[in-house]
Amino acid sequence: MPTPFRHTEPPSPKAATGRVAEAYAQMARDFGIAEPSTFVVLASAPALLAPAWALMRESLIAGPGDRTGKEVAAFGVSAANKCPFCVDAHTVLLHATGDHALAERLARGLEPEDERHARVLDWARRTREPGAAREPYPFPREEAPGYLGTVLAFHFINRVVSALVTENLLPADAQRLRPVRSLAGRSLSRTVRRIAAPGASLPLLDDPGPGPEWAAGTPVGPAYAALRTAALSGAGLLDTDDRALVHRTLDAWGGAHPPLAPDPFPDRRTRPGARLALLAACAPYRITDADVAAWRRPEHTDHCLVHLVAYGAFAAVDRVERGLSAPAARPGLRPTAPSTSSPSSSSSSSSSSKETS
Question: Which residues fall within 8 angstroms of residue 198, CB to CB, at 6 or more apart?
């Protein structure tokens, strides 16, 4: 039976226990989808699932700012990152907000008629280019935690989905039909329009810390900090030289999609881990079976692959985040060297404690 997943076989949500099971329950209640592929794909590395969900929930769903506007931002980021799955998903979710005309304009590649939505869409697209989407923002300052958290959540989610999930949101690409996406959105409308209490996901996290200054003391901050810690632990799967290469490359990266030829990524025969991490950061849709096979060793489980992809994805998110806010406003969370402990050991024990809590 075909699955929506590439390169890994995540455990069934029905077998989930502990905090992972609690996260799935929150998804069903607050997102309206009980087992979304975007999070199920992380279940092979459970330490990542709860904080990824928490960041999306506390920003897009429960954070400050209009839900329709934040859906436009999520759509714009997903389009900039060339993630068809997420583009289609947020077209459906725009239908769920009740703004059917806006959803269909975006589906047809047109700009929003509403000037504010047009500015938000343009800003969200530009967040892929470090430094191109600094203040002034196209939303009130007090809504920044919701909007910045949303775009950063989807810079991470887009990359994981593009790397490890197929492009088909619905069987046979049915979401490409207007009546289908409209009906799918209407089925979610009650959940999307319900007000969600901020902070409900934070009990799923282990002492994450306050997070960055732009989160302004909202639950978005701890969720971002928790995902950052969990994702960057994947650095332990690379040696020192490969980690240095990843950081040098991303420090110089301007957000452009890399050319197909010449291939700018490390050779899979000599540096397969660095290649996978940089593909996940800059062009996850280009990860192939050959790339994964070149890196795989007997000790490299799906748990390790998900952690490595998450590391590359969040290394790019870190680069984007540094470009979204002025240096003077960033004392709360500075870039740090990632832990060199391998997820195959340290994250496994963390995941185990979460699963049994």
Answer: 58, 62, 63, 218, 219
**Distance (Å, rounded) from C-alpha 209 to C-alpha 146?**
18
Cα 35 from Cα 32, distance rounded (Å): 9
Q: What is the spatial distance between Cα 315 and Cα 317, in angstroms, rounded to a whole number? A: 5
CA proximity to 178, closest of 91, 263, 112, 305: 91
Going from the C-alpha of 130 to that of each of 232, 334, 337, the distances in angstroms are 19, 16, 19
Do the Cβ atoms of 320 and 128 come closer than 8 Å? yes
Residue 136 confidence (pLDDT) above 60: yes
Residue 135, phi then psi, degrees to nearest 5: -60, 155
Q: How far apart are CA 308 and CA 274, in angstroms?
A: 9
Given the residues 83, 86, 282, 304, the one annotated as active site: 86
Question: Which residues lie below 8 Å from residue 74, measured CB to CB, with a gap of 6+?
Answer: 60, 86, 90, 93, 124, 150, 151, 154
| Distance between CA atoms of residues 191 and 31, nearest Å | 7
User: What is the per-residue pLDDT across 205-235, written as a single tens digit (0 to 9) for each?
Assistant: 998 888 999 999 999 999 999 999 999 999 9
Is position 282 annotated as part of the catalytic site?
no
Task: Tell me the C-alpha distance between 106 and 224, whole Å.
Answer: 28
Give the list of residues 6+ apart from residue 162 with CB closer than 8 angstroms, or none: 81, 82, 83, 85, 284, 285
Q: What is the DSSP string of 215-280?
A: GTTSTHHHHHHHHHHHHHGGGGGS-HHHHHHHHHHHHH--SPPPPSSS--SPPTTT-HHHHHHHHH
Q: Which residues pair with 5 in a beta bridge?
A: 165
Neighbours of 300 (CB within 10 A): 15
pTM reported for the whole predicted model: 0.91
State the helix-helix crossing angle for 302-324 and 272-282, rounded to 10 degrees: 50
- What pLDDT was estimated at residue 68? 98
- Which residues, 6 or more positions from 135, have their beta carbon under 8 angstroms from its beta carbon? 325, 326
Question: Sign of the CA dihedral 287, 289, 295, 297?
Answer: positive
Q: Are 19 and 39 in contact (CB under 8 A)?
A: no
